[in-house]
Amino acid sequence: MTAGPIDSSREARPQVGVLPMRRTPEGGTEVLLVTSRETRRWVIPKGWPMKGRKPFEAAAQEAYEEAGVVGRVGKQPIGFYLYEKRLKNRDAVLCQVKVFPLEVRKQLKKFPERGQRDARWFTPSEAADMVIEAGLAGLIRAAGNRDPKRKG
Predict the structure, then answer these.
(1) Under CATH, which architecture does the 13-108+115-144 domain have?
(2) Which cofactors (predicted)?
(3) Rounded to two decimals, what is the model's pTM?
């Protein structure tokens, strides 16, 4: 399945997301992806901004709700990407996702969307190959080359 060209002249709706990362015992980096609920494609935890929360706080909340991961979230985004979100009424809206790095400290067994999504750890290059959004793949590849413990 490939994504068609995105018409970036349309107004994009803002979303926030995290790129959950952890160090392997060998010193490598792994990235956590989750499946979307509708199409079951591999994505990062993301959602709409939350009133009263800073963007990085809302992104960390999405990581908890969708993947059960908690840790240290960077206050500055590592980048953004565009994608088309299908709404319940079948319309599609263009979304711009600001992506914050998340150094995962703990993966919980119980969390709000458990059982609704699959979650799996990948190497950055595997994760980049699993997502269909080219912009997200680029962010994942770039993040694989940075140290998740670096202050973001």
Answers:
(1) Alpha-Beta Complex (3.90)
(2) Mg(2+)
(3) 0.87
